[in-house]
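Running this now, will post back.
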Amino acid sequence: MTSSNQPKRFYKQAAIEPIEGGWTVALDGRTIKTPGRAALTLPSERLAKAVAAEWNAQEEHIDLLAMHLTRLANVAIDRTEETRDDMADELARYCETDLICHIAETPDELAESEESHWAPVRDWAGDNLGVNLVPVIGIVASPQPDASLNAARDHALGLDAFRLTGLVYGAGLYGSALLALAVEQEAMSAEDAYEVSRIDEAWQAEHWGEDAEAKAATEAKRLEAKALGVWFRALA
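Update: finished.
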């Protein structure tokens, strides 16, 4: 979105305020509403401070697409409870084609690097959540155990709206339900999970180079991962 399509900054300061049920953010004393016109009620002071920092970081124009925490909060408040079952199903679908279950056929160096990082995450998910996924060589998916898909689904359904929102967002960011689950459960950082998710991409860039557009896309996703880390730490 170019600056000409972005709303101009219309406030001097964003500050947090206590509100029934948690905390909110006010712009020059006027509390923020979600796109669905609900109160922006955040479950922790730490998350409220992080959202307020996003608003204070805006310059002449408001870059809504770059305000990852605000967007996640809007989804959690406006949509997640109504689509909870669908979101749990979406997480289970990511398990069916989970990135870290697809090991490169060649070269051996890449396959070994992937497995050294991915196998521990798969083992962790099986040991701690009962989500045991079957790894394969190549891109053709293997049917995953129904018990594991149900375990992932049940875990998602047991989360509050804010944690569920972050979990499904992470699965999309990483292309991996298992990495997202590890982040949500604080078994690894959101930033590390992103780097683990792009082992193949990093190997290709190291050996064949990377153009400016690809570099920009990577940096944008790193910012998303950083925001997701802030999100879960603020919910802890």
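DSSP finds ten helices and five strands in the chain. More later if anyone needs it.
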